[in-house]
Structure formats: structure tokens, C-alpha cells
Amino acid sequence: MSIAVKNISSRISENVATISSALFGGRTGKLYPSLPDVRKGITFKPYTDGLTAAHHYPNTLLPVDLSSRFPSEFPVYACDRSRYFGKHVLGDIREKCLLDQRLFGRVSAVVFTRGTAHSSLEHARRWEHALRDQIERADAERKQLQLLHVVTSTPISSLLLTGHVISMQSLIKSTFGGPEGTNFLAAKKISPEHTRTLCLYNEALPTVLLVDRHCRIRWHCIGLQTEEAAEIARLGLRALSRERGTFFRPAVSAIR
After folding, report:
1. In what order do the strands lie in the sheet with 97-98?
2. What is any Pfam family matched here (predicted)?
3. Helix or strand or coil: residue 73?
4. What is this structure's pTM?
């Protein structure tokens, strides 16, 4: 094989790898941190290039000393139908809240979707279906569990923010439904720090977090729902619903 042919073949292979990475998360996979070694009997499902099935999750809940706190400065827009009515429509739509205030005091499963592609929203819905029964059973027993959806979508320009928020609120609510106050839009660019804390490493795949009553992230998972990951999440929700302790309400910060 001539050198020219070898060079062409090499370029084709590189292009295929680049396209595969963009489609299946290999590009963002470079941002995945190294998983910790086995500690306290906890192992992690590792990420491999091109993997879309659930990964980056521990085989059980993380103990408190290995958990990160949900960011206190994470503003979102609520996607409630009630916000489309009344004389303060624009004011209501532009109003923001801090998500950790919605999480405090309740056990939460938070499903993050990056962008609004139909496939991304459908992947999030599958996670919802996998966890819904466990949450409804526990909630019927007054265990205070909730399932929240957060879609991250940033407008091209800040001048388009109002229209972007209005259209996204309508899309998110019609896609996920559910009780009022469970669907949110994050329209601000996610900082590197929040990307690490919330495990939002792969823009093509959903991220699922289990958050305890103190706003600590006790379990995390990236990727499409699998029965193994869903079962670990269900067991985790059950265990978190039985945990008790003294609560310290986080201070309310100004929303920027």
C-alpha cells in the first residue's frame, strides 16, 4: 500500500472516530473524571468510548462523606401551566428560583436532559417510567419522595431569553407532565464547577441524580436507562426515604 493511500485511510479512520464521538459521547467522554478506586465496598460502572447505556454510577448509595452537595447557586425556571395565565404572564415566566430550595427536606430523583432533541427527551422519559412506581409508592406512605426534570437549554443570544424560556416551558411541560413544580428549565450556561458536581459530562445523554433531604448527591448515573442501573436507583430511593436526621435549611441566596 502506497504512502498516499495509507494517509487517506488514516484520515478516513480519524473522521469516522470524530463522527462517532460526536454522536455517541466520545468527545465529551474526555471530560469524565477518573473514577475512584473501590472504597467502602463501592464500585463504579466505568465509561468506555461510544458507550450510551448507563454508566458512571456506583453500585450503591454513596455515604455522606463521599457525597457532594447540590449547588446552592443553580437558578431555574419552573415550567407550570399556571404561569401562562393571569395579568403577570411575562413577569411569572421570567421569575427564577434556586433548585436546591425545591430539593431541601425531600428525597429527590433529578433527571437532567441536555437540550431538547426528541431522542434526549425520550431517554429522560424512560428513566421517569423506571422510577415513577417506587416514588409513588413511597409518597403514598408519606415518605416525601419527588421526581424532578431539569432541561438545560441556552438561547443563542441573551436578547432572545424571554422567547426562549416561553417556548421551552411549553415544550417541557407537554413532554413530561407530572405534578406542578416538578419540571424546570436551566437557561443559563452550566459552569465547569456545576458540570463536575452534577455529572453533566455528556451532552448527548441524560444524567440521573438521587439527592437526600440535606441536598447531598448520594447517587449519580449518566446514560440510557438499563435495568441494573434502574434497580440500584430504586433501592437507593427506598433507602433514602428511610433515613432520618436533623435538617439545616440552606440560606436563601439572591438569584442572579
Report:
1. 68-69, 216-222, 207-211, 107-114, 145-152, 183-186, 75-78, 97-98
2. ATP-synt_10
3. coil
4. 0.77
The CA–CA distances, whole Å, from 52 to 7, 25, 110, 121, 221 equal 31, 7, 19, 15, 11
- Rounded CA gap, 202 and 188, in Å? 17
Taking the C-alpha atoms of residue 52 and residue 18, their distance in angstroms, rounded to an integer, is 16
The class (CATH top level) of 40-242 is alpha beta
**pLDDT tens digit sequence for 159-216:** 777 777 877 777 777 777 777 778 898 888 889 999 999 999 988 899 999 999 999 9
Domain ranges of the chain: 1-30, 40-242
SS3 233: helix
State the pLDDT at residue 18: 35
Check: CB of residue 113 under 8 Å from CB of residue 148. no
Q: Are 250 and 100 in contact (CB under 8 A)?
A: yes
DSSP structure class, residue 43: -
Alpha carbons within 13 angstroms on the beta-carbon side of residue 27 total: 14
Class of residue 3 by CB neighbours under 10 A (exposed 0-12, middle 13-18, buried 19+): exposed
Q: Indicate the helix (H) or strand (E) that contains 146.
A: strand 145-152
3-state secondary structure of 58: strand
